[in-house]
Amino acid sequence: MTRAIGYIRVSTDKQADQGVSLEAQKAKIEAYAMLYDLEMVDYVIETGSAKDTHRDGLQEALGALTSGKAEALIVVKLDRLTRSVADLGRLVETYFQKHALLSVGEQIDTRSASGRLVLNVLASVSQWEREVIGERTSAAMQHMKAHGQYTGGKPPYGFQLINGQLIEHEAEQAVLALAQKYKAKGLSLRKIAQVLSEAGFKSRTSRVFDSSSIRRMAA
User: Where would I find the beta strands (DSSP E) of the chain?
Assistant: First the structure.
């Protein structure tokens, strides 16, 4: 009978979200162990994010493998262990060549070659999904910005925030037009800043313009 240790993790703000509460995870692991004739030697419970593998609870669970206390580690889903493909790869290389990684939700058992293959494929797909979501979010933010919709932070120079919309600030737009005009004539950023300052124009914080601010304004 394979000796196993259960690793249970919850996020501080989502302890009962989508069936990943402490109680739900433990019940699923117990049922899995009974179904596949595994001996549960211990459970490690941890609260926190999976941003890296330097977590006390995870290190305790992995230590149980290296010490010989357990031969397998069981999680309800891979994201309880880590959300990073790179971190998962390192864990597999370091710990799960000699020891087994079992996932209830994905039905993964790395004691077989096919189980290791499925693990790698699922991890890669998960990473791809997160990157696609990130790209879509970025594209949506760019679309909102292009259409004058507020996306957070301070309104850029030349605009003001009115009822959640970025509206052109007439006086600042005039300064932007001057900066762009001088740039088109070939003046350096430093020279443009000097000319605007000499004309009495200042930034929104009442400071004289410098090269970096002109770079942003005349882009």
Answer: 2-10, 38-47, 72-75, 100-103, 108-109, 159-162, 165-168
